[in-house]
């Protein structure tokens, strides 16, 4: 069964069961959705509420799925106070996305990972005009039988570049330390 990549959502589509097919400049495109213009992927949501001034105020952040709700404050963001902060949530999103992207890329290359574990260190630093996320350090360990380190590093680097969260953070330096473990 010939598979193709939907140009909108980037999912794999079987040409025999595609919801829509379009031809452009002599090339056929296969789509997940019937009109070929909208992604069939859900739109994810989150929300935040802040009350008060920057230094004395406080807020809550929550995920649309209900899986997380947490308090945040100036101290939890810029010092070592109790609570979460936007950078932790970005780090969690990036670590999760990269782990999935690496697992998918390994599978596509014919390897079956037993485990991929990733942490992300998000650097919030003073920059011109305020603060900025200047770098993210992804540190991953993976148990992947049958792969050599050179091939693993190649696939891991490709996953770093192809991960949707990495793409969203394209203006930020992303460092990767990838290690094979058994």
Which helices and strands, and how do they pair?
Elements: E1 3-5, E2 12-14, E3 20-24, E4 27-31, E5 46-51, E6 58-63, E7 69-73, H1 74-78, H2 86-108, E8 115-127, E9 130-143, H3 149-162, H4 164-168, E10 173-180
Parallel strand pairs: 9-10
Antiparallel strand pairs: 1-2, 3-4, 5-6, 6-7, 8-9
Helix pairs in contact: 2-3
Description of the structure:
By secondary structure, the protein is an alpha+beta fold. It has 3 domains: 1-43; 44-84, no CATH class; 85-180, GMP Synthetase, Chain A, domain 3 (2-Layer Sandwich), CATH 3.30.300.20. Helix content is 26%, strand content 37%. It has helices at residues 74-78, 86-108, 149-162, 164-168; strands at residues 3-5, 12-14, 20-24, 27-31, 46-51, 58-63, 69-73, 115-127, 130-143, 173-180. Strands 5-6-7 form a 3-stranded antiparallel sheet. α2 packs across α3. The relative contact order is 0.10.
Could you provide a short overview of the structure?
The chain is α+β, with helices and mostly antiparallel strands. It is built from 4 helices and 10 strands; from the N terminus they run E-E-E-E-E-E-E-H-H-E-E-H-H-E. The chain is 26% helix and 37% strand.
Q: How many beta-strand segments?
A: 10
CATH topological fold name of the largest domain: GMP Synthetase, Chain A, domain 3
Poorly predicted ranges = none
For the termini, the CA-CA separation is 35 Å
Taking strands numbered 1, 2, ... along the chain, how are they ordered across the largest sheet? 5-6-7
Shape designation: globular
| CATH architectural category of the largest domain | 2-Layer Sandwich
User: How can the largest sheet be summarized?
Assistant: 3 strands, antiparallel
| Quaternary structure type | single chain
Tell me the helix content.
25-40%
Strand-residue fraction? 35-45%
